[in-house]
Amino acid sequence: MRKLTLIRHAKSSWADPMLNDFDRPLNKRGETDLPLMARRVREFGLFPDRIITSGALRALTTAEALADTLELNPDQLCELPDLFESCSETLLHVLQQQPDHFHHLMLVGHSPGLDALAYYLTHEALKKFPTSAVLHIHLSITRWSELADSCGTVVLFDYPKMHPAPL
Fold it and tell me: What pLDDT, in 10s, does the model give residues 28-42?
């Protein structure tokens, strides 16, 4: 069995209309949600063998915070700039190419690619895949190359608005 954790980047800023979409940083809510989400990932015991992330600033910032909170080694973080704006087929192909000595992968990316990949793997329709969402899937495969339609089961789905701020 393999495990896959899909994480959508923390909320990003649209404050600078001149900034390229790839280079948008986190906004105030993203900066608040990210450490809380990273701590929950740790509390859930989701320690991946590798984090694969889009190279977009908001995704990379999210992945680096996760790696730091999970106390991963720098070589466990794999930045792939081409994952920015990738469709689910591209994400699937990247995952299918991963070495089989990795049993748990974490993929930090963007909507709608993550949404479509999650549905393809589990056939569970999520109402939405909000920013800072964590979707953990158990996969009925022994090798990453076997990743296919409906091979996964959702074990956990968590996002910031499920945890209202204390009054």
Answer: 999 999 999 999 999
pTM, two decimals, is: 0.96
Backbone angles phi, psi at 21, to 5 degrees: -55, -40
- Structural domain tally of the chain? 1
Could you tell me if residue 89 is inside a domain? yes
92's CB contacts (< 8 A; 6+ apart) are 117, 120, 147
Residue 9's domain comprises 2-14+31-148
* Phi-psi group of 160: left, alpha or beta (phi > 0 → left; psi -120 to 50 → alpha; rest → beta): alpha
In a domain, 167, yes or no: no
The kind and range of the H/E element at 158 are: strand 152-158
Classify residue 85 as left (phi > 0), alpha (psi -120 to 50) or beta: left
Q: What is the CATH number of the domain that holds 143?
A: 3.40.50.1240
Residue 61 lies in a domain: yes
Tell me the pLDDT tens digit for each residue of 52-95. Answer: 999 999 999 999 999 999 999 999 999 998 899 999 999 999 99
Does some domain include residue 140? yes
Nearest alpha carbon to residue 45 among 104, 2, 100: 104
Q: How far apart are CA 111 and CA 142, in angstroms?
A: 27
User: Would you say how long the chain is, in residues?
Assistant: 167
